[in-house]
Amino acid sequence: MVKVKPFAAVRPAKSLATEIAAPPYDVLNSEEAKKMAGEKSLLHITKPEIDFDPILPDHDERVYDKAVENFKLWQKNSWLVQDSKPCYYIYAQTMGDRTQYGIVLCAHTDDYSSGIIKKHELTRKDKEEDRMIHVRIQNANIEPVFFAYKDNEELNAIMAATIAGEPENSFIDENGFGHKFWVIDDDRTIERITELFTTTVDAFYVADGHHRTAAAALVGAQKKAQNPNHTGKEEYNYFMAVCFPESQLKILDYNRVLRDLNGLAVTQVIGKLGDDFDIMCKGTEIYTPTQLHEFSMYLDGKWYCLNARPGRYDNNDPIGVLDVTILSRLVLDKIFGIKDLRTDKRIDFVGGIRGLGELARRVDSGEMKVAFALYPVSMKQLIDIADSGNIMPPKTTWFEPKLRSGLAIHKLD
Questions:
Q1: DSSP-derived 3-state class of residue 234
Q2: Which of 85, 230, 264, 295 is the most buried (most CB within 10 A)?
Q3: CB of 321 closer than 8 Å to CB of 378
Q4: Which residue from 335, 227, 230 is spatially nearest to 275, judged by alpha carbons?
Q5: 118, 201 contact by CB (below 8 A)
Q6: 11 φ/ψ angles, rounded to the nearest 5 degrees
Q7: Angle between helices 125-138 and 210-226 (to 10 degrees)
Q8: Does residue 214 contact residue 130 with C-beta atoms inside 8 Å?
Q9: Alpha-carbon distance 249 to 258, whole Å?
Q10: Cis amide leading into 144 (omega within 30)
Q11: Coil, helix or strand for 172?
Q12: 8 A C-beta contact, residue 85 and residue 9
C-alpha cells in the first residue's frame, strides 16, 4: 500500500491566490512566462530567468540563485505563508462541464523506488537533473506532481463533505478553467485519510510529472545518504502530489505533425498508407477519430480517415495495440523513416487541448507537410500498462487542465 502524510503547506495569502498561482514551469517558454508574470506570480520562482534583461538561459547559476532569493522574498513579504499544522487539502479543477477533485498530500520517495508509484513514461536524465537542482536549492517541492489512484468510496465521501463548505481559494484562469482549494484541518479526518490511503490504496499512477517525481526521489536519496541519523520519517522522504480518483480523469489526444514527406509525392504517401489502412477522403472539413485504431490525416488541404486493418497489430500486446505504436510502426517509421520520436527533428507533437484546427493551421502555413490525429488513450489502458511494468511510447498522454502551481508548496525541513 502507499505511504502518505499530511503536511503544513506554504500557501498564498487568501487574497493573493489568483495573483500568485501560475501555469507549470514546462507549459510556457521563458518569453511567454515573462509576458504573463505579474509582480507576485510564482513564475518568478519557477522560471526566474524572466527577471533578467535579456532573459538568461534557465540553467545559468544566476537563475538558480534568483529562484532562491525570490522564494525567500515571497515569504518575507507574507505573500506565501506556511500553515501552522500538517493538513490535507482538496484541489478542484473545472474544464467545461467536467470537474475533477484531487487530494493534496505527501507521497513517500520509497514508493517510487519500489514501484508502488507506477510510471508509464521514460524520463530523461537531463530533465531529472534540472528538476532535482530546483528541489535541492529551494529545499522544497515548489510544484506538485499529478497522480491517479483507483477509486475509493470513503475517500470520495470525505472529499464530497469537504467541498460542501466554502473553498479557501476560487478563481478562473486565463484559459477559462476553474480552480478551487479547500483545507482539511480536522484531526480525525486527517487520521482517517491517512489510514484509508495506507490500508486500501495499493498504488499511485503518475499521470503528469514523471521528471518531478524522479527528481523528488533523487533528492530524498541524496539527503538520506548525507544524514547519518536517517530514520525514514524526515520530511525530505516525502514529496507533494495531487491525487485524483482515476474515474474523474480524462486523457486527451496527443497528435503528430511532420515537416516533410520523406521525398514522397502526395499520391505516393496515400498509396503506401493503403498497404495497412483502409482510407477514406473526408474533404476539407475537420475529421476527428471516433474509435481506437482509427486515425485522421491532414494532407494537401484534405482530411482523411485511416482505419488500421485487422492483423496489423496484436490485441494481446499491451504496447503494440496502442494507436501511438501502430502509427509509429506503420506510418512514421515505415513510410517517413522516423525511428526515434525523442530525437528526430522532423516531427513535432500537438496536445489535444489545441484542437485539430491547429494541425490544419500548421500544415496550411507551410511549416509542416502532414498531420495525424489519434483517438485518446483511456485511463484503463494507462493503468493496465503501468501495472504490467510496461512503458508507453513518447508523447502518448495529454492531461488537461494542468495543475496550477503555487496553491501549495511543500518544504523539506
A1: coil
A2: 295
A3: no
A4: 335
A5: no
A6: -130, 160
A7: 60
A8: no
A9: 29
A10: no
A11: strand
A12: no
pTM for this predicted structure: 0.90
Question: In one letter, which amino acid is 200?
Answer: T
Q: Say whether pLDDT at 125 is over 80.
A: no
Sequential DSSP letters for 293-313: TEEEEEETTEEEEEEEPTTSS
Q: Give the separation between CA 191 and CA 94, rounded to whole angstroms.
A: 28
What count of Cα atoms within 13 Å lies in the side-chain half-sphere of residue 225? Answer: 6
C-alpha cell at 254: 496527443
* Cα(6)–Cα(105) distance, integer angstroms: 6
Q: Return d(Cα 177, Cα 408) in angstroms, integer.
A: 18
How would residue 130 be classed by pLDDT, with cut points 50, 70 and 90?
Answer: confident
200: cell is: 486500501
223: left (phi over 0), alpha (psi -120 to 50) or beta: alpha
User: Looking at the predicted structure, is the pLDDT value of residue 315 above 90?
Assistant: no
Cα(398)–Cα(320) distance, integer angstroms? 19
Separation of first and last alpha carbons in the chain? 25
3-state DSSP assignment of residue 170: strand
| Distance of alpha carbon 50 from alpha carbon 30, whole angstroms | 6
Confidence check: pLDDT of 124 > 80: no
Determine the residue type at 279.
I
Strand-pair partners of 236: none
- Of 196, 157, 175, 25, the closest CA to residue 93 belongs to 175
Q: What is the pLDDT of residues 203-242, one digit of tens each?
A: 999 998 888 999 999 999 999 999 999 998 899 999 999 9
- Tell me which H or E stretch contains 179: strand 178-184
Would you say 141 and 135 are in contact if contact means Cβ atoms under 8 Å apart?
yes
CB atoms within 10 A of CB 260: 12
Specify the higher pLDDT residue, 211 or 4.
Answer: 4
Alpha helices in 231-337 (DSSP H): 266-273, 323-327
Q: What is the C-alpha separation between 55 and 79, in angstroms, rounded?
A: 25
Helix 61-76 vs helix 125-138: crossing angle, to nearest 10: 40
